[in-house]
Design goal:
about 10% helix, 3-stranded antiparallel sheet, 2 helices, homodimer, mainly beta, about 200 residues, 6-stranded antiparallel sheet
Chain lengths: ~200, ~200
């Protein structure tokens, strides 16, 4: 997120560089390190708070991890990396990322799914929303103004390669305060999209 | 290249969309169509002009194709697609893309290689250049100000997924006039980087 983060100085943003991202796990053999989110980092994000606390007590599993590479926060640069959302549920709600708007709201983001499967849930401040299925080879264009959240509805890690403008920034606060309008839950072994009872 | 191109209206750039890109061939089953470059479109690009004319006469093979999706030409949007460079040689010089600067020079581009192998050759107007090897799982960050050209040094198609700012634009003219400072040729079965004898 910050140009001064732990990965930024490892790469030559001025003259170019290559980096490996495993096409199945999403992880890099390079010096880059992921940012990691466990269930204990996700309080307030899932509908079933008791189920979340039980997971936290019983091993606190990792929900997702992703690369913050520290791209220059300039409009001509690009932030890139992979995002890996692990399979699991909190109650009947699928493991997911926090999701965020961009601080510069009018900036898009692109995710190309390489392994696993799930959904990208997007919504704009005016309430337009949609849920897009992702699987290997499927790309989603998240347009300017849309918050976006990765949701793993499968049984293996879901890995996407992402790209957005270097200065776009992350606004996590709006989603933390309001939540998303919709939730993805399992019902009778199928994915169901329901209203978020806690949406403000 | 243009927002008014044949693909632009097929996709919902305002509210988001998904599209498939085959992770081996790079091709999409969607309505999107590729832009195609044959050897006959590559006159003046390779050192050995006689060898090029012979290829044009003998079947005019495809050198590369790529998706111009018609993203809005705005600074908040992103142009995305795949680029597929086919294996082959003109004389001893490997098949490659024309390569280009961005019209807005200070904009980066990202390429994530999914199949095949080769190089990305980059250089800036001041003459700093480098050749970066690509293979499945390897991403290259092409920084602002650097022209970039994909080169297939392998025996199967080289496919990359790319992303850059929607309004960056393509400047092909500078490369067509000046050429690149370096060429990638095969010598004794190996890749060799040599000075371009025609560089102006």
């Amino acid at each position: 997120m910050s140009g001064a983060n732990k990965n930024a100085e490892k790469f030559n943003w001025k003259q170019g560089f290559t980096i490996d991202f495993d096409m199945v796990t999403g992880l890099s053999k390079s010096e880059a390190q992921t940012s990691v989110r466990f269930t204990s980092n996700m309080r307030g994000m899932f509908a079933d708070e008791a189920a979340l606390e039980e997971l936290i007590t019983n091993g606190d599993p990792m929900v997702y991890e992703f690369y913050e590479m520290g791209a220059p926060e300039k409009e001509g640069d690009l932030a890139i990396g992979t995002s890996i959302t692990y399979p699991g549920k909190v109650g009947n709600e699928y493991f997911m990322t926090r999701g965020h708007f961009h601080t510069i709201l009018e900036t898009a983001e692109v995710y190309y799914c390489l392994s696993g499967n799930g959904y990208m849930l997007i919504e704009n401040p005016e309430g337009d929303w949609s849920a897009h299925e992702l699987f290997p080879g499927e790309m989603i264009y998240v347009p300017p103004r849309y918050a976006h959240r990765s949701i793993n509805t499968g049984t293996v890690p879901m890995m996407t390669f992402f790209c957005f403008r270097g200065d776009a920034g992350h606004d996590y606060g709006t989603i933390e305060t309001k939540g998303y309008r919709k939730l993805l839950v399992e019902k009778d072994g199928k994915v169901e999209i329901i209203d978020n009872p806690k949406w403000k």
